[in-house]
Amino acid sequence: MHNRWIVLIAGLIMQTILGGIYAWSTLTPWLAESYGISNGESGFVFGLSIAVFTLVMVYSGHLLARKGPRTPALIGALLYLAGYFLASRSHGSFPLLLLAVGVVAGSGIGFAYVVPLSVGMQWFPRQKGLITGLSVGGFGGGAIILSSVIEAGKLSGLSLDRFFLFYSLISGSLLFLASLLLSSPPAATGKKSGEMQVHQEYSEKPMLLSMLGMFSGTFAGLLLVGNLAPYALSKGLAEEMTVLSVVLFSLGNLSGRIIWGHIFDKTGYRVIPWSLLLASLFYMVLRVASGGFVFLASVFLLGFLFGSQFVLYAGYLSKTYGVAAFSKRYPLVFLSYGLAGIIAPGVGGWIADSTGSYNTAIILCLALLFVSGVILFTANRNR
Q1: More confidently predicted of 88 and 138
Q2: Residue 84 and residue 104: Cα distance in Å, rounded?
Q3: Whole-angstrom Cα distance, residue 322 to residue 332?
Q4: CATH number at residue 165
Q5: Do 223 and 365 form a contact (C-beta atoms < 8 A)?
Q6: Span 244-293, pLDDT tens digits
Q7: DSSP-assigned states of every residue in 273-307
Q8: Contact 22, 250 (CB under 8 A)
Q9: Residue 200 vs residues 137, 190, 266, 275, 331: alpha-carbon distances, Å
Q10: 14 exposed, middle or buried (CB, 10 Å; 0-12, 13-18, 19+)?
Q11: Which of 185, 205, 240 is where one domain is finished?
């Protein structure tokens, strides 16, 4: 009884540290000031880390099944430490920073991410929904802490090289210690045979709809969060308000990951297209926002809608194909998130660099969300 709470706490610590990647845009002004890294280059670092994370996660799930939780978690901790340690030695070299954070640290996230989620559900089989929400919520909320740490480090006069060094050692050590506390419960006896039936085993339509929806929803969210700090500055917000905007997006993301699971349980598929259409509406509000309050409120709500992407499609696929097939199908849909990650933040930064404004990028998000929402709405209007 005691052990499972230790495992849960260790898993939440891991997810919170790994989720700090969503605070990356807070580093963008510091990267430009210290290294001369452009908005587009900074966005591509963030995007590559998301893409690598999702690709590695597919392999990590198989490694978890074969070797247990500690092996992939420890590999993830060491890679995460090594990635940010290498970043502290980049001295402004964009290719080295791309390798360090995008590939090495991104691989660390991919190896470690799936472990607390899977092990937590094993220890708490009767509270799978709650544990899933807490796990992905911890990942979504990690940026709240790290964005504040980044701002404090910058205001203290710490160099970016030293910041990366300290962050690598502290976060890597915490991940390593948390990994040692992870374990699987004793083998369950007598598995329940009454698992959900596979209703549409030979139909790929739910997969295709989920891929489209997740790509669109995460493309827009990652473009925004990957460029949020410089975008807020371009709107005339004070620098301290840019940190607040990242925190608010993270709070929305955190609460969305937990709350949308309950919403799906009550409504089913039909809430999915509405989540995309609502997001398109708030991107329109964000585009025309001139006051700080409207901008910040829109950022929070868009974070809340972004968080829905990580629970709605999981619930839809589990309900459609059954629990047994879920572990094989969901990682494939999750790759849409990785594809969005490698494209969206860099494209947003590139558009801003090319046009001098983020307006076109926001309109692109709005259009993509609206078209995808209409397609998903009409594809299964009777659901």
Answers
A1: 88
A2: 8
A3: 16
A4: 1.20.1250.20
A5: yes
A6: 888 888 889 888 887 887 788 778 888 999 999 999 999 999 988 877 88
A7: HHHHHHHHHHHHHHHH--SHHHHHHHHHHHHHHHH
A8: yes
A9: 30, 27, 21, 24, 18
A10: buried
A11: 185
